[in-house]
Automatic annotation (TrEMBL):
UniProt feature coiled coil, ranges: none
Primary location recorded for the protein, binned into one broad class: nucleus
One Pfam match: Nol11_C
Keywords of the record: Activator, Nucleus, rRNA processing, Transcription, Transcription regulation
Keyword check for Transcription: yes
Protein name: Nucleolar protein 11
Length: 672
């Protein structure tokens, strides 16, 4: 999530349906899924095809799998039976008892109480709701009945466990949250009726929140996702934070793009879908106080009460823009899926940073000179740990002005920020989009070199722009040539200077066809016949793409859209680099940030996978593929010959160590 990088994707066959959420086994680092209710699948990151991974068909329908960090996966069946995964895999067809008869499971959760895994699930039958608590290792099951509520029923549940007591929170259809306490230690096995107490009414200033999902943040705060509706107004989906101790709405965030009505919470971060993206929001809860709950806290240095980062918006961006100290819940919004580890700490905000959001808003209509001067001052005054957030605000302010004023583009200012600050793509996702629109290849080059989390779609867009721009245009722009200057030495006539060649398995007579390639006007010819199909500026830009991290699975679909002529040109350049690397004994190109042999070969394979059919059909690619084939074949033959004499060379080394040669001797050894 932090780098916005998809790491894997697996699909079931057409007609099959994944019927419960997939979980990760923390002990084995494997994934566990169930499709078509009874078919269990287990696999890891190295597996590609789900059809070929472990499969077990169970005897009963699975409701949910819960994975506990220290307790292993626990499987809950629709009939109420529970098994640990280890026990289940010993005999997948073992009979599973039906405990709940005609009841339907509505919700379930698992916890660790010490070393004891505990499972709790809620069921419904004819309007009555029941709660089951099972200690798995002891095979101890207790059944409870929820106290009925007139004209309303539970919509969803959440729970936590502390000091041998389960606190069950129920969100009812009357827009209220109720609390139920369930002790783990029970002396009787008879069904008991659980009393409940009102915890919170989800209404404020005449508006009522129709909750769909909620999570517990701490003993005094909960987060509720739902639709907030005032009388006579259209309802709006939003995420809200409530103080249950003082019955107040702490803060809320409107979600105009809609959600899936599901909210997850993990390690002080919210996860929910907003439109078509996954949104991650960090939060931090501090000790609750009445002053903080009602927004009257004046002293930001009050012990046990921390200031918080508000989630105001700047334009349409979900970005931190103002710092206040009025509430005890800290909320830090991250654009889409951004969670850089270096920004995971929420610390107290000093008084002089409180005006960041207001300052940026005040500068919205300022002149260009005043605007940029104020932003430079803001960056110079920014203090850690909110420094990264401030830089993100500055870049977003610059990009927003670029969007509203197409003639404005502070190229030098943006370059200065990217070159001197430790940034990431996730902190300023619109920066590279604007640079692509402006065809600012130097800024794109620096971003590719410095950003560790560039999405594959943006990497492909940069590659396409680099290949499409003419050599004449690139000669007029500033490009960093440090990655090519050591092996493409350019004179004023734009021709390469001959470099020293050390042949590495290449027979010039055997592979003369390689040197007969046609040389176009864009070719930079060396005196020994080898050529670079692109100029040094374009080569440097392409090298920055080769260094960019990517996931093959998610780059390949974009790469297939690369125009055929550009794909051929890129392959010719990769082939040129491949030959250059092979000339060196250590197969390493000289220079700073020069591509490695592994990067070159990986991109060649990726490009051929994406365009092989097109390459075969194109006349201009035929000779290139033939030359590539001949060169690889020659290298394979060369290394094959080396392998044949490897044993003899080792024997020579052994004999040399065994014999203590005198002052002078001649030995004749026959290699067979």
């Amino acid at each position: 999530v932090s780098d916005q990088k998809p790491l894997g994707c697996w699909s079931v066959k057409h007609g099959q349906i994944i019927t419960c959420p997939v979980v990760c086994n923390f002990e084995t680092h494997e994934y566990i899924a169930v499709h078509d209710d009874k078919v269990l699948r287990i696999w890891n990151n190295k597996d590609i095809n789900l059809d070929k991974v472990f499969k077990a068909t169970l005897s009963a329908d699975v409701y949910r799998i819960h994975s506990l960090p220290n307790g292993g996966p626990v499987v809950l069946f629709k009939g109420g039976g529970v098994r640990t995964l280890d026990v289940l895999l010993e005999a997948p067809q073992q009979e599973i008892e039906n405990i709940i008869s005609d009841e339907v499971i509505k919700w379930s959760e698992a916890f660790m109480e010490g070393q004891q895994p505990v499972l709790i699930f809620a069921t419904e039958k004819d309007g009555d709701f029941f709660v089951y608590v099972q200690k798995i290792k002891m095979n101890n099951l207790h059944k409870y009945k929820l106290e009925q509520q007139e004209l309303s029923k539970p919509l969803t549940f959440t729970a936590y466990i502390k000091n041998q007591i389960i606190t069950l929170l129920c969100l009812y259809s009357n827009d209220s949250v109720y609390k139920v306490l369930i002790p783990l230690q029970q002396n009787t096995e008879e069904e008991q009726i659980l009393p409940k107490s009102l915890l919170l009414n989800l209404s404020v200033s005449g508006s009522i929140l129709k909750g769909t999902s909620f999570v517990v943040l701490d003993k005094d705060h909960i987060a509720v996702l739902g639709s907030l509706a005032a009388s006579g107004e259209e309802s709006k989906e939003c995420l809200t934070i409530w103080n249950t101790k003082f019955q107040t709405l702490q803060t809320s965030k409107e979600l105009p793009l809609g959600t899936s009505r599901q909210l997850w919470c993990y390690e002080e971060k919210f996860f929910f879908t907003h439109g078509k993206v996954l949104t991650v929001i960090m939060y931090k809860c501090e000790t609750s106080s009445l002053a903080a709950a009602v927004g009257k806290l004046k002293d930001s240095q009050t012990p046990d009460v921390s200031s918080f980062v508000n989630w105001n918006t700047l334009g349409d961006e979900e970005l931190v823009v103002s710092f206040q100290s009025q509430q005890s819940v800290a909320l830090i919004p991250e654009t889409k899926m951004t969670l850089r580890s270096k920004r995971n700490t929420v610390a107290k905000v000093q008084p002089h940073t409180l005006s960041v959001g207001q300052l940026l808003l005040n500068l919205k209509d300022a002149s260009t000179t005043v605007f940029e001067d104020e932003l430079r001052q803001l960056m110079s005054k920014a203090q850690m740990p909110d420094f990264q957030a401030t830089i993100g605000c500055v870049i977003t302010a610059l990009i927003n002005r670029c969007k509203t004023n197409p003639k404005y583009y502070p190229r030098n200012f943006l370059l200065q920020i990217v070159q001197t600050r430790d940034l990431s793509y996730s902190l300023c996702p619109d920066l590279m989009a604007v640079a692509l629109e402006k065809k600012d290849v130097h800024l794109l080059q620096i971003c590719l070199q410095r950003f560790p989390d560039i999405p594959e779609e943006i990497t492909y867009a940069c590659l396409k722009v680099f290949l499409s721009i003419s050599e004449a245009y690139l000669q007029r722009v500033d490009v960093n040539l440090e990655s090519v200057i050591s092996y493409i030495d350019v004179e004023f006539n734009n021709k390469e200077v001959k470099t020293e060649i050390v042949e590495n398995g290449f027979n010039a007579e055997l592979e003369q066809g390689i040197r007969d390639a046609k040389i176009t006007k864009e070719t930079h010819l060396t005196t020994n016949g080898e050529f670079c199909p692109v100029g040094p500026q374009k080569a440097a830009l392409l090298n920055s793409v080769l260094h960019s991290a990517y996931s093959e699975t998610f780059l390949l679909p974009h790469l297939k859209n690369l125009p055929a002529q550009q794909a051929v040109l890129f392959l010719r350049y990769l082939y040129y680099l491949y030959v250059k690397c092979s000339e060196k004994i250590n197969t390493t190109l000289p220079g700073i940030r020069s591509p490695t042999i592994n990067q070159i070969m990986d991109w060649m394979c990726l490009l051929l996978d994406a365009h092989f059919t097109v390459m075969v059909m194109l006349p201009e690619a035929k000779e290139l593929l033939s030359n590539l084939h001949k060169f690889v074949r020659a290298q394979v033959r060369f290394y094959s010959e080396l392998n044949k004499i490897e044993g003899s060379l080792r024997e020579l080394q052994r004999l040399h160590h065994q014999k203590d040669s005198q002052t002078y001797s001649i030995e004749v050894l026959e290699l067979i």
